[in-house]
Design goal:
The complex is a heterodimer of chains A (460) and B (502). Chain A starts with a helix and ends in a 16-residue tail after the last strand. By secondary structure, chain A is mostly helical. Chain A is built from 17 helices and seven strands. Helices cover 38% and strands 5% of the residues of chain A. In chain A, helix 1 crosses helix 4, helix 4 runs antiparallel to helix 5 and helix 5 runs antiparallel to helix 6. Chain B folds into two domains: 103 residues, no CATH class; 343 residues, 3-Layer(aba) Sandwich (Alkaline Phosphatase, subunit A), CATH 3.40.720. Chain B is 33% helix and 16% strand. Chain B has 14 helices and 17 strands. In chain B, the strands form five sheets. In chain B, strands 1, 4, 5, 6, 7, 8, 11, 12 and 15 form a nine-stranded mixed beta sheet that branches. A two-stranded antiparallel ribbon of chain B has the order 2-3. In chain B, strands 9-10 form a two-stranded antiparallel sheet. The chains are: A mainly alpha (460), B alpha/beta (502). At the A-B interface, strand 1 of A face helix 11 and helix 13 of B.
Amino acid sequence: MIDFVFPLFGRFHPILVHLPIGILLFGVVLVFLSKKRETAHLQSIRLAFLLGGLAGLLSSISGFLQYQYEGFAWDSVQFHFILGLTTTAASFWLYYELRKNAAFPDHFRLKSSALVVLLMFTGHLGGNITHGETYLIEPLPTGIQELLGYSNEEAKGLVLPVQGWEELAYFEQVVQPILNQNCKSCHNPRNKKGDLDLSSYETLLTGGEDGSILTGGNSEASALFSRLILPKDDEDHMPPKEKRQLQKEEIELIKAWIDLGGKTDSKLGDADIHAELLEPFFEKVEIPFYPNVSVAPLSEEQLKELKANGFFAELVEKESSWLMVSCVNFPQFSESDWAKLKIASQQIAFLDLSGTQVTDQILDSIQTLPNLTVLKLNQTAISGEKLGELQSISNLKNLYLNQTQVTLEQLRPLQNHPSLSKVFVFDSPASSEESNASFSFVLEKGNYQLPPLPTDTIVY
Amino acid sequence: MKNLEKLLSELQVQKLQTQTRRHFLMDCVSKVGGLALAPLLFGCEIGKNGQAKDGLNLSERDLNPLAPLPPPFAGKAKSIIYLHMAGAPSQLELFDFKPELAKLHDQDCPESLLEGRKFAFIRGVPKMLGPQAKFNQHGQSGAWVSDYLPHFSKVVDEVAFLKAMHTDQFNHGPAQLFMQTGSPRLGRPSLGSWVTYGLGTINQNLPGFVVLTSGGKTPDAGKSVWGSGFLPSVYQGVQCRSKGDPVLYLEDPSGMSRDLKKKVISAINQANQEDFESIGDPEILARINQFEMAYRMQIEVPEVMNINDEPDYIHQLYGTQPGEESFANNCLLARKLVEKGVRVVQLYDWGWDTHGTDKDGSIDMGLRNKCRKIDRPMSALLLDLKQRGLLEDTLVVWGGEFGRTPMQENREGKVQGFKGRDHHVDAFTMWVAGGGVKKGASYGITDDFGFSGIDERTSVHDLHATLLHLMGFDHEKFTYDFQGRPFRLTDVEGELIRKIIA
């Protein structure tokens, strides 16, 4: 026969498989619609199982041809294939039972249900082959995914510990994660582009269409490396240009591994690698800027109320309870207005009272904001005598006291504050004080100058 | 109430006087047709969630398009100051030190650099032009800065350099548009508009996005570089002048007292309010809001735009002269505006196009003079923001729309009278500083002549993606639906430049 017929027929598999599913389900529905001794549908049911069986046979044949011609690995299709054949056989058998008797055979509902289960399971395995095993998992919320034992490790790519990276297995823990993230979608047992599978060391050694892709000790001669450094527009460049591209550090790591011999027993520390190269992969512990406790967010009405009272009030980010409140359009704000802020005392994380009428007394109220992280009191009559009260706000990080009457002495009580990291005192008595006192936080005094230079006046 | 009645009756009379029978007939024709068309055109009176707005369920944004919104995630920066050097400064005289280029000075350009390339003016084989500045390393970070920017050399540890920027437009207009709107063609919203649209404004008495220009001309691309494109026009940049009235027509006309103005506005607003109650179109409420904002701005804008009351040491720091239109004054204003809660301030300084066709456009003289005018002010701006703690959450961006060639410009195949460089898209330097930027970083490496980036190249889209990230947006998710599809500032490109993020 002409060469193309088999592969072409194989490609009809994805369409053909729907026939047995539809026809057999229809038959089973009729079985359940019929009463025990009722035979009205019997003819139709027979026909359904016969046609279902034949359709199953066609599907199995086309499926086998597709496996033969499209480079699927037996491992990945075997269960689907065996179950497909079983389903076909089961339909024929049920048909045979129906032919034999004038009425429903014993336990026929049970048998048909078993057929449905078989059918569904076969279909599901087939779906997994075409769409990937995580096809139904992907749309689920990450929480449920993790519950089901799926994690998104691969998408994350390479992550290395800051301490002890030298001891990592170079291939398993460094190279493979890079391949998983960037190459595996096209080079895996199910989908072997260029007849290459990069999902494990063994398959990598097998190579692809053009043979071996790894020459230990010679990265230039290894397609695994040389394809990565081809210009992006080159047809042979990997990964293809529309995909995420490897970072140069990732390429560097692969090269170093090949030059080291390209074996599984080497350690990352064996290669001549500087920690600098690994910098992008080091696990970053993100310390959130705002407090790491959970507080119920303000209701929409409460937020509206704050705004109606003249404050700028907005969440610091969409899904958050933390609030930024500013009096930029409320310069007449004074101690007596504090009551208006009380509804948000748990949520206020950023408070800007710059340019308002507040005095030192305001600190009595401010210290009731447990989650305050940034406080701005610029251009106010604050003299600083009560600053020590801020000691009790254990989240305070940045404190702005520019253009106030604060002196260095008054900052003293803030020494060793648990979280305070920056204090700004530009244009205050503190900023012009000469002192070599050191503080536990960064003290920004300002007063920067750019002394005149002779070149300032030279016109060319 | 009396005012309102007067106004309404006057309006009524005027309307009647101009209305004729023909108008009636015409109305009948056009409006009946319109009625039929209305349901076919969606998007006019349909709100975000597909329901018609009924005036009852209005969001704050419907009433006030500049109302603040929370960023998708807590970005480090809350405002941006963007310093655009229109005309494109030479990276080879300022930041990208190329000793190898000096060796080739006055020799023919190697063929390999010209192959398959197009330049704006260079024709044939030009001569190479060695660096005309003296370079030194500065600060803890050891950043290379030339003697053209002696003051800036002292603040390099605050900034992160992008030394292998590239673009794909070699003419000023399209390149400026690309740099500011993410597209070389007209019609896209500018970076500032996107940010104002996404975050609203902090100070309700000031515009959210202010533009200041210096250098005598506005950018070649015109005002579209701060335009709002397909976003509602309230998000476009408001150009303020540093000399004379900051905003034209904001001042009351002579003879019109503020009280009278207040009365006029409240009468108009009452009329609008009644209109709203009968029709229920939220646009009317937005209009009422705009009138009120304009009224409030009349006080606040002249106040914040006045630099006379700044102390002497601040004037010395910036080198400002009140009353001029200068980059220095604009830098000081930028600080004041950001301090007052303006989201985006954009400075355009014109005059950086140094082709060598005249003295002002020469690399060794004109460029030096230009540099002198920005060196102190931009360094002062960084220091002033720093000492006030504003650099914690303000982004500062500096750059032109492209770079300049390592070759001497030779338009019409002739040697120019002065030393000059042509437009160049393959490599140029920009810097960013402030909110969330890694201090003292340098990203990107160019080849020995500064012709192309050979490592860590960054595109305009990459820069935009990074700036949006620092403001709290995921550039891939920050979209606006227009003509049936979502649009992004970064189109379909842009990768975060992680190495300059702190």
